[in-house]
Specification:
With about 180 residues, the protein is an alpha/beta fold. It contains 6 helices and 10 strands, in the order H-H-H-E-H-E-E-E-E-H-E-H-E-E-E-E. The chain has helices at about 1-5, 10-15, 30-35, 45-50, 100-110, 125-130, and strands spanning about 45, 60-65, 70-75, 85, 95, 115-120, 140, 150-155, 155, 165-170.
């Protein structure tokens, strides 16, 4: 999405001006299908997806294992905290793209805080829209920068290491740019 590619894409396109670049957004299983059918040369994914894929056909490079930050509306009372204490989130609605039952989601987050309310969204922009409307909180990798006056990004205590981010390509590809 735009926040992931915002810094990378201009650098890449300036360096390789004659290269045709296409940027597409699909769910992870569709991205993998397109990678396998040679429609895409590289995909960006998290370990959430890597854990469910058979990796012997792919090379992957760790792009980030940095902690994740909280996204909260600037009018949320928690926005006054310098570093967001995760124990204060128990009454907040978690807005997530993690499509699972509340029990699975609670299991995933239980080492950090108790999740009592969850809203699933299918796009990152919907997640941002809901946080902007103060309908809940969310999390993003710390390398992403959100450019909006209505949403504040906060470091958390303890640090949240939710997912790692990877670039994934087919092994033995002939594409010079992804090797």
């Amino acid at each position: 999405e735009i926040y992931l590619l915002d810094n990378l894409l201009p650098i890449f396109s300036n360096k390789y001006k004659k290269l045709t670049t296409k940027v597409l957004q699909y769910n992870y299983s569709e991205l993998l299908k397109k990678l396998n059918s040679l429609e895409l040369d590289i995909i960006f994914t998290t370990d959430q997806f890597l854990n469910s894929a058979s990796l012997e056909k792919y090379d992957y490079i760790l792009l980030s294992d940095k902690p994740w930050n909280a996204l909260i509306n600037k009018n949320n009372i928690l926005s006054n905290e310098d570093i967001l204490n995760l124990s204060n989130l128990k009454d907040e609605n978690l807005i997530t793209m993690f499509s699972s039952s509340i029990y699975t989601i609670n299991d995933f987050y239980k080492e950090f805080f108790d999740v009592n309310n969850v809203t699933y969204v299918n796009t990152f922009l919907t997640k941002l829209s809901m946080i902007k409307a103060n309908l809940g909180i969310g999390f993003i990798p710390s390398y992403l920068k959100i450019d909006t006056n209505a949403i504040i990004t906060k470091e958390t205590n303890p640090k949240l290491h939710l997912r790692k981010t990877y670039a994934l390509k087919r092994k033995n590809t002939n594409n010079y740019f992804v090797n």
